[in-house]
Design brief:
Elements lengths: L5 H34 L13 H23 L6 H25 L7 H14 L4 H16 L2 H4 L3 H51 L9 H18 L3 E8 L2 H8 L1 H18 L5 E4 L4 E7 L3 H16 L11 E7 L5 H17 L5 E2 L6
Parallel strand pairs: 4-5
Antiparallel strand pairs: 1-3, 1-4, 2-3
Length: 366
């Protein structure tokens, strides 16, 4: 598995944080409305239970205020800063926890209803995934808020002690579950990043010529197609240069294919160092190269092409031969891509026919 580099770890953590918060927001938006629908009927039967009507009304009122805010947070999630999203999520959490504590305390003198508090906490730990530090703070405050006031609502000291012991065990389990859920989500996120990175690397390898690390024939054609679409849309100039090494077969026949491969690699390096950063280079064939020059008219492209030709002509390849190149250059004139390539190939052929080691930009040249 590919490891995430240290310099990208912080960015990944920030992205993980927003991914988790988005998932929390999606779940909260549904649950906040669902709870209103579930709790509302209890108001009409509360007198049969423990006369918790005021508590139910308080929770419904708070939920009615927070639910629209939660939905607004979900809708405008990308525009909200992290602190604001967390504030809304934790505010709703504490309101729900307060409701669970209230139900337990309200009925404590009549029956043991601590399970209501436990149910709320178990639901929230699954509903809202939190980093371990934050969950420890939230659960610690919740634990203190529940166990400390118990003697006020429970007159039996033994019952208070038993409830505190049970609550302590339960909160340890809840905190452990919260940490494990966060770690599972983090592992899933990290694995997803690694897979996406590997897929991107594989996709890039498929696009590149293994010998020169330039675009291969298919990727060159695709890049030219993209630039043609951009040129049409933006009304900007676009030029293309196709070059072929002169008498390359003689190099292979005289010095062998290993030397020929080395010449191909060095030629690719020279072209890469000579063109501009905005240009795209491809190995279009065996010893044929293509340079795609966006935002470039024919005159400016000719300057680039000439610079490439001269750089190759004066380069030292470590053998007693000179490497020269012939090329054709065309500016896109709204013709189909096949026609643009055909015209450029014709100019390349003319450059070969009329002496080699030259760049032709017009079929009328002699």
């Amino acid at each position: 598995m590919t490891n995430i580099q240290p310099e990208s770890q912080h960015a990944a953590e920030l992205t993980l944080e927003r991914v988790i918060l988005r998932e929390n927001a999606r779940r909260l938006s549904v649950v906040s409305v669902a709870l209103i629908g579930l709790v509302f009927p209890l108001y009409f039967i509360e007198h049969r239970l423990f006369d918790t009507g005021p508590l139910i009304l308080a929770f419904l009122a708070a939920s009615a205020l927070l639910a629209p805010l939660i939905w607004l947070m979900r809708i405008q999630f990308d525009c909200w800063p992290v602190w604001r999203i967390k504030s809304v999520q934790y505010l709703y959490s504490f309101v729900t926890i307060a409701y669970g504590c209230g139900l337990s305390f309200w009925s404590a003198r009549q029956a043991d209803m601590t399970h209501m508090f436990f149910m709320v906490m178990a639901g929230l730990v699954v509903l809202i995934v939190m980093p371990p530090r934050e969950s420890l703070i939230v659960h610690g405050l919740t634990f203190a808020s529940f166990v400390l006031p118990l003697p006020v609502f429970m007159s039996n000291p033994d019952a208070v002690l038993a409830t505190r012991i049970n609550t302590t065990i339960f909160m340890i389990i809840i905190q452990s579950l919260s940490i494990e859920l966060y770690r599972m989500r983090k592992r899933s996120f990290t694995d997803q990043l690694s897979i996406e990175k590997q897929n991107a690397q594989l996709k890039e390898l498929v696009r590149l010529d293994p010998m020169t690390q330039l675009l291969n024939h298919e990727a060159s054609f695709a890049a030219l197609s993209d630039e043609i679409r951009r040129s049409r849309r933006m009304k900007t100039p676009l030029s293309v240069l196709i070059m072929d090494l002169d008498d390359f077969k003689l190099v292979n026949d005289t010095y062998g294919h290993l030397v020929g491969d080395d010449v191909i690699r060095q030629t690719a390096d020279i072209i890469r160092q000579t063109v501009r950063t905005t240009d795209q280079i491809g190995r279009y064939g065996g010893e044929e190269f293509i340079v795609i020059m966006p935002d470039t008219d024919l005159a400016a492209a000719s300057v680039v092409a000439t610079r490439i030709r001269r750089s190759l002509e004066t380069a030292e390849f470590g053998h007693s031969f000179q490497v020269t190149v012939s090329g054709g250059i065309s500016q896109f004139q709204m013709e189909p891509i096949d026609e643009l390539i055909r015209q450029t190939d014709s100019k390349l052929y003319l450059a070969k026919k009329t002496g080699k080691n030259r760049i032709v930009d017009s079929l009328s040249e002699i």
